[in-house]
Design brief:
7 strands; 4 helices; globular; alpha+beta; about 190 residues
Length: about 190
């Protein structure tokens, strides 16, 4: 499960980087608060250790996308001695004002968030006003996982967290996965 969570987004980011070779992202506009996606270091080591004990950074991708800059960071404790197998993935996408100047980066990020509104119908989905009016958290597709999305100006941040409750392999409860994802998101939001 954790391997799939890391591999699928890595393929997406790699494809974005590859496509970016033919047409790199248009740079940020003067009013775009974020001119690049943050680096993985914005997720504090203590925060990672709090949710993924003995976790190691397995994916650290950063590169241009169409009218955006993206980064994907993934940590896992799968295979770590004496640690529950858990994963944490944080994706950043800094949306830029379009070339014509008609759509600002913040508007493009808000549109991206609107795509998440259908998720609000998922059982267990809930708004997170502490992270913004359009922030949401919901159960992941796999048992023991939680997904979260929030926005700061033209930056969209996605957090995926889950795994086993202990070394025995029993999945985390959704409540525990949600709490872990929220803790990570709040720390990231404070660091931006």
């Amino acid at each position: 499960m954790a391997a799939a969570v890391v591999v699928v987004p890595a393929i997406a980011v790699t494809a974005g980087l590859w496509w970016g070779e033919d047409g790199p992202a248009f740079g940020a506009g003067p009013d775009d608060a974020f001119s690049t996606a943050p680096e993985c270091a914005v997720v504090a080591a203590e925060t990672v250790e709090g949710v993924v004990p003995s976790g190691r950074l397995e994916t650290n991708e950063h590169g241009p996308l169409s009218d955006a800059d993206g980064a994907m960071c993934a940590w896992t404790s799968v295979g770590a001695d004496g640690a529950a197998p858990r994963f944490l993935r944080v994706d950043f996408e800094a949306r830029f004002t379009d070339k014509a100047g008609d759509v600002t980066g913040a508007s493009a990020a808000a549109r991206e968030m609107e795509r998440s509104t259908t998720i609000s119908d998922v059982e267990g989905a809930a708004p997170l006003p502490s992270l913004g009016e359009d922030a949401l958290v919901w159960p992941g597709a796999d048992e023991g996982t939680a997904e979260l999305v929030f926005r700061r100006d033209n930056l969209v941040v996605r957090v995926s967290y889950g795994g086993a409750a202990d070394t025995g392999g029993k999945p985390l409860s959704f409540g525990a996965a949600r709490d872990g994802a929220v803790d990570v998101a709040e720390q990231v939001a404070d660091s931006l």
